[in-house]
Amino acid sequence: MTDLQASNSTQYRRLRVALLGAGAVGSQVADLLLRHGDELADRAGASLELAGIAVRDVNAKRDVELPAELFTTDAESLIVGSDIVIELMGGIEPAREQLLLALNSGADVVTANKALLATHGPELFEAADQVGASVYYEAAAAGAIPIIRPLRDSLAGDRVVRIMGIVNGTTNYILDRMDTEGADFAEVLADAQRLGYAESDPTADVEGYDAAQKAAILASLAFHTTVPLDAVYREGITQITPAMIDEARAAGFVIKLLAVCERLTVDGAESISVRVYPALVARTHPLASVHGANNAVFVEAEAAGSLMFYGAGAGGVQTASAVLGDVVSAARRHIAGGVGVGESTRANLPTVPIGHVITRYQVTLEVADQPGVLASIAGILSDGGVSVATVVQTVEGPSAGSETDGSATARLIIGTHRAPEQALSDTVERLASSAVVDRVVSVLRVEGE
Amino acid sequence: MTDLQASNSTQYRRLRVALLGAGAVGSQVADLLLRHGDELADRAGASLELAGIAVRDVNAKRDVELPAELFTTDAESLIVGSDIVIELMGGIEPAREQLLLALNSGADVVTANKALLATHGPELFEAADQVGASVYYEAAAAGAIPIIRPLRDSLAGDRVVRIMGIVNGTTNYILDRMDTEGADFAEVLADAQRLGYAESDPTADVEGYDAAQKAAILASLAFHTTVPLDAVYREGITQITPAMIDEARAAGFVIKLLAVCERLTVDGAESISVRVYPALVARTHPLASVHGANNAVFVEAEAAGSLMFYGAGAGGVQTASAVLGDVVSAARRHIAGGVGVGESTRANLPTVPIGHVITRYQVTLEVADQPGVLASIAGILSDGGVSVATVVQTVEGPSAGSETDGSATARLIIGTHRAPEQALSDTVERLASSAVVDRVVSVLRVEGE
């Protein structure tokens, strides 16, 4: 350390920083805090003193070597008296109670815990309001991609119309490899697990639970409304087959797991829809070129038009960048004085069920290859209020798993015009029970048009 | 207005907002403030009362119809007593003195004035610091794209390594059309002027002055350093020909006017380079797919990795979105109390001249088509310390404008390895005066590798 650096860091007010958790992200945050302390002090206008790291097992192996004397199992003692508490443990408890303790002790709080925010966000925000503190969570929605501040601040004077986010790196990695290699889901998942892109229990990622938590957070911010997690409609990607990806490609689409947050009018009332599912995205859409484990959030606003934010959605050191940005913000607020700016949730818009969503669909059917079939299917669709835009018929044989009675079958890929989800799903049910339809192979929604 | 809305807006503290200028952006800002007042109040936690609009001519025609009683020519009286002053006049004076008056009167200031910030930013920031106010300028660097908060706050805990920005919509529109249509510069410029994408005097755009101002602002934020405008190296796009674009395409590149802000080490000292020029960008790079008048800022940071921010770079209503986001932030700060957070410029890194930049180049030469020419050119490059990566020779005749003595000439397209700009430019000078070189057709830098 040079004299200049020493004098820089000593002239600042010292802020006591407590770190809860030392996993992939936590150990990187501690390392960067220690290595870049002087630089961070210059930017924050305060010296950020890492007071300790609370962990369950002080002897556990870490991704980064850190001074042993920083570790403690006594989180409560560490929290009380701290100015900034960083929570990177994950899970609901004890994260929730420790963050409430931190806020009630007057600390600002930084967290990357999307599960906690999506389920207990309002409780934390209210506790922060009570004491004039702030909750920072830039790392909770899209890893290293700055999306919270743009939504919360930069677009605060605009009206967000729609967000479409690729917010889960694991599923994007899997779908991208299925798309480029023609591999099937199970095969790529196993590979992703070997490479560390997917966890040994991949449910949270592949079933869309992780994306749903992030969707709730993004929608709450974008629409100034508290969106409870159970209002988010959710489907995962486990049913996506190479055949579906091929059919998508033939029609000019790629399949992406999207978190969609949308403003819509239902029965004359301004409402929102928040949903996560694999969707068809035109190959010319900017989201189509998000490859590998990357994330991107595409935002449409009334005045700003279309914006896109792109980057690494996960990774220890990448997420640590977002966490440290929040730490600097919290420090600046401490120095500047004043109370924390609370969440803006006064719009209080209702979240409508999936049945109200209006979009285009691509429905793939296996049907008997005989005269009159198309007419009778078109009739069912028309009766259901679903208008057909395109029909592609292929007769290259039914898939191996379908039940056949020896007669020829054909595959029909029907692209619909925009229709309400309820009308579509009722119609698909009628198609499924129709005599001329052997099997409903897939129903996919089209987004981004 | 419903009773609920009325009660919402009246329960808030009133903040007096003054608007200076009612051009394309200003009139949209006024319109949105008036139309979305209640919604903005809910988000800001304060009622934003548009106290007046200062203009030169109260009778001038506006893009949007606004109440006549708001207009005044007396900016000073409007400013004094206001809580937030929005400056959208452009130009240096009287914008500078009116913003200083606003800050000294205790108002927070919102501006989209890149010319003013790039030349007098430090003076404004210091005035703000003196009174504990803030200067907001999200709209000054990339129009509607939120880039200021990501750099200032989200990445405050990281180290930005490089920024590459397409920050001028006019030049991107021109280059994109030249690329897709094979048209030449003058032709597309004339068309862009007809369509309103380029001004009647296009100098600020096509010569890179606008991009250089934005580069100075972005570099100052990213590197926590005051970067004076005259430290920004600048070249425009007027010399770009269809042939250069074709050659770029053949080599897998597209030509984009880039603002590059880069951290580099010169003589052992940490330094930065800030430069604007047309550069070769690989067609696989995310910046290559930024079409039309859109903007994008690609940021590489040590921890966060690669991020990209994409959207509309200009336009009245788009820029108004960014301005209003700043107004809401300023209002929130007023309500929260505390002093404004000043600019972080303590890193104070030197900006080095262009000669220190190290990158790859593509040099196109017209040479005599005779034995030994390539060897002698290779010798000159090697003597200059410039190592050759690729050579493509075409003999399809010299261009119409070149001087020929009747003997055959060939075109050599030389791709170099990374070399310092000084070595390259010295070498190009020696090539130009060499007997075997008829003409140096073009020298382009490669960025984003």
SSE layout:
The structure is a homodimer of 449-residue chains.
Chain A: H1 3-10, E1 13-20, H2 24-35, H3 37-44, E2 46-54, E3 71-72, H4 75-79, E4 84-87, H5 95-104, E5 108-111, H6 114-131, E6 135-136, H7 139-142, H8 148-154, E7 160-166, H9 169-181, H10 185-195, H11 203-206, H12 209-223, E8 233-234, H13 242-250, E9 253-266, E10 269-282, E11 294-301, E12 305-312, H14 316-336, E13 358-368, H15 373-383, E14 388-394, E15 409-416, E16 419-420, H16 421-432, E17 437-447
Parallel strand pairs in A: 1-2, 1-4, 2-3, 4-5, 5-6, 8-10, 10-17
Antiparallel strand pairs in A: 7-9, 7-11, 9-10, 11-12, 13-15, 13-16, 13-17, 14-15
Helix pairs in contact in A: 1-3, 2-14, 3-14, 5-6, 6-12, 9-10, 15-16
Describe, in plain words, how this protein is organized in 3D.
The structure is a homodimer of 449-residue chains. Chain A is an alpha/beta fold and 449 residues long. The first copy, chain A, contains 16 helices and 17 strands. In chain A, the strands form 2 sheets. In chain A, strands 7, 8, 9, 10, 11, 12, 13, 14, 15, 16 and 17 form an 11-stranded mixed beta sheet that branches. In chain A, helix 2 crosses helix 14 and helix 5 packs parallel to helix 6. The first copy, chain A, is elongated, with a radius of gyration of 25 Å. The first copy, chain A, starts with a helix and ends with a strand. The N terminus of chain A is likely disordered. At the A-B interface, helix 3, helix 8, strand 12 and helix 14 of A face helix 3, helix 8, strand 12 and helix 14 of B.
